[in-house]
Structures are given as structure tokens and as C-alpha cells.
Amino acid sequence: MKYDFTTIMDRHGKDALAVDDLGLNPGSPDAPQEGFDAIPMWVADMNFPTVPTITDAIIKRAQHPAFGYFSPTEEYFQSIITWQEKQNHATGLTKENIGYENGVLGGVISALSVIAHPGDKILLHSPTYIGFTRALGDAGYTIVHSPLIFKDGSWYMDYADMDRKIKENHIHAAILCSPHNPCGRVWKQEELEKAMKVYEDNEVNIISDEIWSDLLMNGNEHIPTQSVNTYAHDHTIAFYAPSKTFNLAGLVGSYHIIYNKTLNDRVTANGHRTHYNSMNVLSMHALIGAYQPEGYEWLEELKEVLSKNVNYAYDYIQEHFQGVSLAKPEGTYMLFLNCEDWCKAHHKTIQELEKAAWNVGVTWQDGEMFFGPYSVRMNLAVPYSRVVEAFDRLDKYVFNAEEK
User: Fold this and answer.
1) Which residues contact 207 (CB under 8 A, 6 or more apart)?
2) Which end of the chain lies in a sparser environment, N or C, as judged by fewer CB atoms within 10 Å?
3) Secondary structure element (H or E) that encloses residue 24, with its range
4) Percentage, residues of the chain above pLDDT 70
5) What's the burial of 191, exposed, middle or buried (CB within 10 Å: 0-12/13-18/19+)?
6) pLDDT tens digits for 156-183?
7) What is the C-alpha to C-alpha distance for residues 272 and 391, in angstroms, rounded to an integer?
8) How would residue 246 be classed by pLDDT, with cut points 50, 70 and 90?
9) Cα 146 from chain centre
């Protein structure tokens, strides 16, 4: 490969929660026992060097010693338009449809305040991304969960349950995660059409978190929510970012796409009114650096790496970890393991299982906070050698330790 996806980076002391936060804060995995190094497989960032055009763009801008007030450049907007056209086959996208957001979660809450009020009930699928749970709760919204159905090794939306919950709770705003975090589903056209029929019949506006849309594996294709039909085009607020794709979460910088002018005007005005939406000049140049021709090339190689990691992990679990079930992720780089049968067969709690892995440096993440009982979320955006090492440790010291 042209780009480096094999080097094991030492991220200690380089502002990385994934390694520096272990054992320090609630929700963080414990640090490993002596004799084991930590394999960072919890917080959703990647352990690969980003595409060099990003660092080149940041360094070039940083060489000018003034960082005063500024406005987003035409190059910034055109970079997004071109990326969306090439990656998502977007048509008719203009600068006016794009708005900067400091982050997807902040953008979701800002947009919700335009289409809902604190105290209102919001429909989400579960398992549910912990960021949604915390952000909506902090902002005063009530989440109504429509559980996804795990069937035949995959996750599916329950349209009848969605419709019933929307009607019973008088819901007029829903959050769709596409691709889905933590389950890794990449929704198909017909699935999104059925979901949109439920939303349209109940006059529901949709906030679509598509931050994972570039990270697809094994040939899966992302369908932008706004492309599904006319209703979706006019009633969806979509959020994107280069942060997941290029590992830029620490720089902060996302954007929304809204085609409905009235909705766009209101969301944009609300973002300005709160004074939270101030773009960082280096974030702007990072996005421009990411959305260069090299970025497209780097992403294709990354998807090959992630596909290999996912295929190895999925096959290993199926062959070696009896009592663990999961869907093979189609997008994102996260596994979501259901360990209920294993825990009950071995008379262990999910917390005891998680701790056993942390002890040997496999720093996966508690899945119960994602509304997945007996579940674990696991980040596979690490070099392949680390994936192999992690599953070797899980086999020897955790799942099959009694037989070893």
C-alpha cells in the first residue's frame, strides 16, 4: 500500500484519550496489569497516521503567524461539494445548503431546538450511541427507543414499532444513525424508504447522523438519507464530518447539509445565535487537506484495511468464542458483541468479562451504556497485527481461559 496502516504508533503523551485516560475516569477501561501493553479498542478514533495532505495543509497555514478572525473560503465549500458528489452521488448541492458545525452532537442539539422543544420525546433506535443519550438528556429531551431487531446475523429496523411509538408519544422528531453506531449496519435503499414512509405518515422531521458514511467495508454502499425521496430531501437535516474518516476528532469540525431553505435558515440562525459555532481556521485547512485527491486514495486503502480487520475478527469470534453473537459490520469500524450466552454459561457478569479483557490490555468498551445488555463495543481501527494480538489474548486469557 502507498500509505502507512501497519506502524504501531505510540500515542502516549500525545493528547489521546484512547491510551492516556485508561483507569482515570468513569467510563474508561482500566489500565492493564503488568506485563501487558494496552491495545486501544474503545474510544472511536483510529490508530493510523492520517493522510499526509492534512498535516501538510495545517503546517502550511501555521507558518503564517496570524490567526485572527476569518470567514470560510470558497475552497472550503467547494471541497465539501466535490466530496459529496464523488462519495455520495449528491446532486444540486450548493454552498448555501452547507453550514459549519463544531461537532455532530452539538449540531444535533442545535438542530433539535429548531424542530422540537425541551421536554419533547425524540425517537431513536437502540442500541443507541452513548453520545446521543447524554446530549439529549442534558438538553432536556426524552428519548423513546425503538429497538433494532437482531435476526439472521444482522440488525433491522422495526417499522411497526417505530410507527406505534411515534403515534403513542406524539413524536415529531427522530434521529437516524446511518451507518449505525454501534451496530455497524449500512441501511439499504428499501430500508430507508420504509423508514421514510413511517416518518412521512407521522409528519416527523429527521436528523440524520452520517458521520460514518465514508467508512464502508466489503463493498457496501452508503445511501444518503436525503436522496431517498422528496420527503427525505425536504425534511432531513444531515450531519457529516471528516473527523471519523481521517481521524480528526481532536481538531473539531463538522458540517450540516439542509436542502429545505426555511429549515436551513432556521438551523443556521440558531447556530449563530448560540455563538457556539465558531470554526477553527486550522480545522478548515484540515478539511481542505483531507478532501484532496490523495484523501480519496488514502480512504480506499483504509477501507481495505478495515475490511481485513473486520473479516478476521468476525471469523475468529465465530470459530473460537462459543456463546458470543454479533452482526458482521458493514460500516464503521466497531464490533458490537452480545456475550449473554457466554456470561450465563460461565456464571460471569458482563462487568467481570470486560475487566478480564482490560487486565490483559484489550481495552474494549462497556456496551450496556449503548443499551445493549451483556454487550461490548470494540474498535478495530488499529493495525492488523494488533487485531491478531488482541484476539489471541481474548482467546487465551478471557473467553477460553478455563480450557487453556
Assistant:
1) 108, 111, 112, 115, 173, 174, 175, 176, 236, 237, 239
2) C
3) none
4) 100
5) middle
6) 999 999 999 999 999 999 999 999 999 9
7) 47
8) very high
9) 19
| Residue 354, CA distances (Å) to 173, 304, 329, 371 in order | 35, 29, 21, 16
CA distance 111 to 114: 5
Alpha carbons 153 and 318: distance in angstroms, whole number: 11
Scanning 39-171, the segments in alpha helix (DSSP H) are 52-62, 74-88, 104-115, 130-138, 159-169
Residue 57 Cα distances to 141, 248, 341, angstroms: 40, 13, 50
C-alpha grid cell for residue 285?
485547512
At residue 149, the 3 state secondary structure works out as: strand
Q: Are the C-beta atoms of 322 and 343 separated by less than 8 Å? A: no
* Cβ contacts of 361 within 8 Å, gap of 6 or more: 32, 36, 37, 38, 39, 393
Ordered DSSP codes for 166-194: HHHHT--EEEEESS-TTT-----HHHHHH
Are residues 389 and 361 in contact, defined by beta-carbon separation less than 8 angstroms? no
Q: What are phi and psi of 170, to 5 degrees?
A: 55, 50
User: What phi and psi values does residue 139 have, to the nearest 5 degrees?
Assistant: -90, 0
Q: Considering only CA atoms, which of 89, 78, 87 is closest in space to residue 227? A: 89
Q: Is 119 exposed, middle or buried (0-12, 13-18, 19+ CB in 10 A)?
A: exposed
Question: Residue 10: which residues within 8 A CB-CB, separation 6 or more?
Answer: none
Contacts of residue 264, Cβ cutoff 8 Å, sequence gap at least 6: 96, 97, 99, 258
Contact 51, 298 (CB under 8 A): yes
